[in-house]
Amino acid sequence: MSQISSDKANETVAERIAFVAADFEAAQSARKQLESMYTNVAPEDADVIVALGGDGFMLQSLRAFIDKDIPVFGLNRGSVGFLMNEFRLEDLPGRLKNSQAVTLHPLQMTALTLDGSSEESVAINEVSLLRETYQAAKLEILVDGVVRMPELICDGALVATPAGSTAYNLSAHGPIIPLSAESLALTPISAFRPRRWRGALLPHDADVVFRILEAEKRPVSATADDFEVRNVVEVSIREDRARSFEILFDPEINLEERILKEQFAP
What is the DSSP letter of 107? Predict the structure, then answer.
């Protein structure tokens, strides 16, 4: 996972802009304003996609266009906006020209369910497992084929990328990971036993498998960002180096700096 210089970003950002917006008033209104000021093309014809919304919509946009090789520049019309830039109407082409690109690789999730079906999805932030009922989940955790945790009794667990380490992972008391670290965070959610286990930092190329123990009695769902699979029995997670996506940032608020600042937040 690496920061790309603004010069390389500038080579890919031209005049063809596609605007996409979340389905709420602030985002839709901003889209209409921008389309009245700048030429708008269909996403498949664009050199850059401008996504209007919050972090959730940014993740949806990145997943939707991950195989199109089109960079995405987010403008915040939501609440948090960690992956977004400040919303301003003026000089959008200039901002795109001077933007810096971050290239990231997603996680690939494969989830097997009680009925024997298999579901796949990619995740930019994290893959999380959560109990579906009042009963705690029981998980067995394998890393690169080796059982590292025979039984974790918990509300759930997650595997987060560096880009996602400041999101759900941080709320679950997982570590913040610099983009250049090439690591993944494996973090328990409300661990009951072993109580003192706080998770692990794994190399980016680790293969992680969760096996759900007593899956019928203690059902568990798996979620790749916002794509959910219920009643899973086994979930495999790995970084997909064959696929990548680019997020564009204004130079003064690049993602590496944001992640660094989070480590010193009060």
Answer: E
pLDDT digits (tens, 9 = 90+) for 196-230: 899 999 999 999 999 999 999 999 999 999 899 99
SS3 content of the chain, % helix, strand, coil (to 5): 20, 40, 40
Q: Is 47 a catalytic residue?
A: no
Q: Give dist(CA 226, CA 60) in Å, integer.
A: 8
Rounded Cα–Cα distance for residues 77 and 63 (Å): 19
Q: Which of 55, 91, 205, 207 is catalytic?
A: 55
Q: Tell whether the model's pLDDT for residue 11 goes beyond 80.
A: no
| C-alpha neighbours within 13 Å on the C-beta side of residue 159 | 28
pLDDT digits (tens, 9 = 90+) for 108-127: 999 999 999 999 999 999 99
- Helices (H) and strands (E) counted in the chain, each on its own, are 6, 18
Nearest to 193 by CA among 142, 152, 136: 152
Model-level pTM? 0.84
CATH code that applies to domain 2-105+244-262: 3.40.50.10330
User: Which sequence spans correspond to the domains of the chain?
Assistant: 2-105+244-262, 107-239
CATH architecture of 107-239: Sandwich (2.60)
Question: How far is it, in rounded angstroms, from Cα 112 to Cα 116?
Answer: 6
Strands across the sheet containing 118-123: 118-123, 107-113, 232-239, 208-213, 137-143, 146-154
